[in-house]
Amino acid sequence: MRYFQPFQITAALLGLLLQAQASAASFPGGQSDNFDFRYVVNSAKEKVFPSVVFLKCLRQDMQTGNKISQEVSGSGVIISKEGEILTNWHLVDKAIQVRCLLYDGRALDAKVLGADKDTDIALLKLEVPQDSKPPLPSAALGSSAKLSEGDFVMALGAPWGLTRSVSIGIISCTKRFLPEASEYSCWLQTDAAISPGNSGGPLVNTSGEIIGINARGIMVGGDTGFAVPIDVALAVASQIRQYGKVSWTWTGLELQPLKDFNRNIYFNASEGVIVAETQPGSPARNAKLLPGDRIIKINGQTINGLTEEDLPAIRRLLGLLPKGTPAKIDLERQGEKLSLELIPAEKGMVEGEELAFPRWDLTAKAINQFDTPELFYLRPQGIFVYGVKAPGNAQMAGLLPQDIILKIDTTEINNAADISAAYKAAMDKLDTKPRVVISVMRGGMLRQIVLDFSRNFQKE
């Protein structure tokens, strides 16, 4: 969790109290305690609290120019008697060890079954000894589709590494579109306090059902937190169980809503979605879809992209189309109804492989069209400088993060294997030739840099 907002619940508690009092006033005598707000909160909390897990993850990070290990903490929630845990991708990304503290004090390791950057969801599995007792608790699952603005919710988790906490608030928005956060999902916005460490914990309704997975908060501007809808999280978990990852497909379609407020463009239609552009070499471009086409149906299913909040669900529908299987696209082009055949492709990795080169004091990463589109535009396949250690040989030579490495001496660098082989060859000649000439592309301009690695900063 990268953001923090102080905990304020006065308004939410007041509203819940008034709601409880109103219910109690109309209930036959003798049983009004069941409608007291304290009863509602405690009842829901007790149903879920035993399944909340405090996580400590040991992660490897290469962004500083060398491989380092760091410990981060967060939350998770057990969703099955077999010990499956839902949490956030950003918590377990590149984790080499995950330790879990359960409600009853047991400490267990967990295995990452799979994680999805696009939705910020990960599925773990507790490594439980066969003779372990008592059985694992698991939380009841609700439906985020049934939520309305104003519904009371609770955020459970381990803020700031404090192992267990509950905050209360309301659903502020059921479909908050955050374009830089996820292309496949809108978010649940809540004013329940979500602090660093709450990441991965459950957002719970007053019936004690999980309706979201806490993911992020905003530091300023009031109590504003965001959770992944549980319907999306469960769809991701299902894919991970089946494939070990989310097997997204790629169509290369860029969409525009019918009522585009941000661009002040409004199309005279009540259903469908507009094709804004198709990416070069994509299945959409191969299928001859054109900017301005209005897609009405996908495999017979009517779609409606009225506003930008509707686009993630359409992208999710496209992303889950079977790979390699033709999909029928019904559309309208300049008043004419057409049907085209689009063959979705495997999306593949959404982040490039990372490598560390200790003696050069730099780390490198593979260019990826989804992770580094600006570099992909310059060079669709290749390696770039990911991190530069300070002080270090790469820094002294003038190499910078985002430099695309084209050649090392006379060896062309196109992938991870090329740069790894070049590093090995250079290290084999360390005693006789402790320098290499690196050709890089920086901002579209070519330049050559002499990297002298005779000095060993690793031992200083």
Report on this model:
- It is a single chain.
- This protein is of the alpha+beta class and 460 residues long.
- The protein has three domains: 1-247, Thrombin, subunit H (Beta Barrel), CATH 2.40.10.120; 249-346, Roll (Pdz3 Domain), CATH 2.30.42.10; 354-459, Pdz3 Domain (Roll).
- It is 18% helix and 36% strand.
- It has nine helices and 30 strands.
- It has helices spanning 10-25, 37-48, 89-92, 230-243, 283-286, 311-319, 373-378, 393-397, 416-428; strands at 52-61, 68-78, 84-87, 95-101, 107-116, 121-126, 140-141, 152-157, 165-176, 187-190, 202-205, 209-217, 225-229, 249-250, 253-256, 259-260, 265-266, 273-278, 294-298, 301-302, 327-333, 336-342, 345-346, 354-357, 362-366, 383-388, 404-408, 411-412, 435-442, 445-452.
- The strands form six sheets. Strands 24, 25, 26, 27, 28, 29 and 30 form a seven-stranded antiparallel sheet that branches. It has a six-stranded antiparallel β-barrel with strand order 1-2-3-6-5-4. Strands 8-9-10-13-12-11 form a six-stranded antiparallel barrel.
- A hairpin with a 5-residue loop joins strand 2 and strand 3.
- The longest helix has 16 residues, at 10-25.
- It is globular, with a radius of gyration of 26 Å.
- The chain starts with 9 loop residues before the first helix and ends in an 8-residue tail after the last strand.
- The model is unreliable at 1-12 and 20-33 (pLDDT under 50).
Give the fraction of residues assigned to helices.
10-25%
Kindly give the count of domains: 3
Helix tally equals: 9
Q: What is the name of the CATH class of the largest domain?
A: Mainly Beta
Poorly predicted regions are 1-12, 20-33
Mean pLDDT: 88
Structural class, from secondary structure content?
alpha+beta
Looking at the overall shape, the CATH architecture of the largest domain is Beta Barrel
Distance between the termini: 33 Å
